[in-house]
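Intended use. Records like the one below are meant for learning the mapping from a protein sequence to its folded structure. Do not use them to infer anything beyond what is encoded.
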Amino acid sequence: MSSPAKKRKQNDVDNSPHKTRSIVSFFKGPSVQKPKLPELQPETTEQTLSDEALARKIQAEWNQEDTSQSAATAAASNESTSADLEQSTSTSASAIPTNTTSTTTASSILPKKNTLSLQSSAGTEDSMSLMIPLDQNPQVFDMSKYVSELQAHWAGEGGDASYALLTRAFVLANATTSRTKTVDTLVNFLRILIEVDPSSLLPAVWLATNSISPPFDELELGLGGSSISKALKKIYGLDNQGLKTLYDKHGDAGDVAFEAKKRQAFTLVKPKPLKIKGVYQSLLKIATSKGSGSQEMKQRLVEKLLQDTRGAEESRYIVRTLVQNLRIGAVKTTMLIALARAFLYSKPSGASFEVRSQQEIARLKKDELVEMYGNAEEIVKASYARHPNYNDLVPCLLEIGVTEELLIRCGLALHIPLRPMLGSITRDLSDMLTKLQGRDFSCEYKYDGQRAQVHCDEKGKVSIFSRHLELMTKKYPDLVSLVPQIRGESVSSFILEGEVVAVDQATGDLQPFQTLTNRAKKNVELGAITVNVCLFSFDLMYLNGEPLLDRPFRERRELLRSLFVEIPNRFTWVKSIDATSANSETVLEFFKSATDVKCEGIMVKVLDNTIKNNGAVQELSSDNGLPGATTQPIEPAETIKPAKEKSTRRKALLSTYEPDKRLESWLKVKKDYSTSSETLDLIPVAGWHGQGRKAKWWSPILLAVRNPESGVLEAVTKCMSGFTDKFYLANKEKYAEGSPNVISRPSWVQYNGEPDVWFEPQEVWEMAFADITLSPTYPAAIGLVSEERGSQSQVPQIFESSRG
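Structure written out for the chain above:
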């Protein structure tokens, strides 16, 4: 009889009636039996584990950065881990009966001091700000319902206005396409700050205008996309692929932050409420961080802002602020209108200027309300145009309100650029001649250079500003050194305007704008200049302490040419002729001569504040409309026929200098699509993911021309204008990612850049263009005109497409 099979021993020490010693016990001393705690089974989800892992990771990073406690780094990391585990189990501990035999004390399950723990991010938004109807008509918006509550609410959080209120204004402005609603929202928001927290008004204005300082202050955040991406990944637990997926879907960094914040179930700590002043001060710190370690400092400030956001909307607008693209449909003019109207309704406590009561304004008739708004807006706009700095404008408004004195307190000043006057675009010469019938005007070459505003004070200090008010004194030290030579003996201080153009000093020939762009932008040394320039001056706005803006153009021009000294090929006047609409043939010849020397066209400017009406001279004022032209029809040259009048009345065309206005007293006549019959047949070969509104489409699109000798497609320009939404949609469907029409980088396309996608060449688009210039970026026709640079079509616009 065979013996029964031997039963194999199981290595199950716990269930064995005979407790055996393991090998570990031979190397350890006797252990004390600890009471067994009840096993806790917290609900573990993928999100919970992910946030917990994130908490541990960031806690460990912060511990490593704490150099003062480097010796305790390892211990701190272990404490962090155990505290996180204890925190995660304590949430379900109340559901488990208490073990009366347990000797565990309360202190063993509490988070340790100075250790991060997970906090739910639900319900952290500021409910007080959400309930305020900022988008109501200011005539019915009742401030009294919210002032005391806001004061108490903000007092509990430090006393300053919360960023949540500004976010609320952004959300409401973004949710409407009505300009009136946007203005109303900003007006009511500004009124709250004026009455409740005036100290937050200036920071709020800067934040709402996508800026932290005026352009000439040279304060820049200096944040690249990588800094913001890194912060998003770290604070919201995104990986590279997750970040890319969200960005490809939304096309906006703020929307990415919004989605990431919504998915975040927990935060490391309960966020402290962001304040308007605090956010602005953080941005200033980012902009002013210089030298060794500045990038790390900027990164930590960005991460702290994201960490302290309460709710997805705050995250969205913090990131949009960091990339300086709020996308709320409120431009500079909108803010100026809102400021003007807000100070009609509200004033800070203790201010002495008068405001109208809400009841009084509500009783105004529509035309009376429009007039009241219009007068206030004109004062604020004019002040800002002459002195574009909110750091000066907002404190003045808080002190004196919207009064005529504002134009004096915030008027023209040396070394603060005024916003330049702009010219209206005309279709062609005949359109220009029709608009200026009966007027004396000057035609000037429109040079292809960089517009410059030159300031000089009594001490000889010189500042040079661009059209966009950026300080570029260090870019043109040769012009700075020129000022003492061009200033006449009777000139002590001045502001003049002109065009900086690259010029061959030996021949005086004008160089293309691309040559000027090769010049360094900052810290140019006089001895190292390779691109020489000439300043072609055309206006004088300030002389010896006196503004000249209200003087006629003829008088300003005469002062400029009589009091300043020409230096050939370095400083001179724009080439010009004086004419009337009866001199059409002369004007045409002058226009052709301008284009022959590579100018963009001509500028036409009204000379005087008078109009010749059947031999009589009529003085114009800005308050009166101008009747339609009653002069006898002129006989223009056969090549120029005046257009027909569309209306019987026109606005008065003054010859004064009007900062920040685009008026028909200055007209641009350029080589453009209406006068050029030339087009190019180009092939779309690549595209980039669009930004903002165009996030779902390809924009811009890279276009190339075929080299008949080599067969290679040579890139010639990018195009992002002239397309309809319907065209964009069809184009994106045709060149959808993953389709056969999207290919890897082709060897037969010559372009050094890196588009997001490459297209299979199969279409020809007929493109109109303003001009063709040399370019170091595009290789088309390289070697034909220049051995180093190719050709680029300027301002391309689609004319017709032929799909293959």
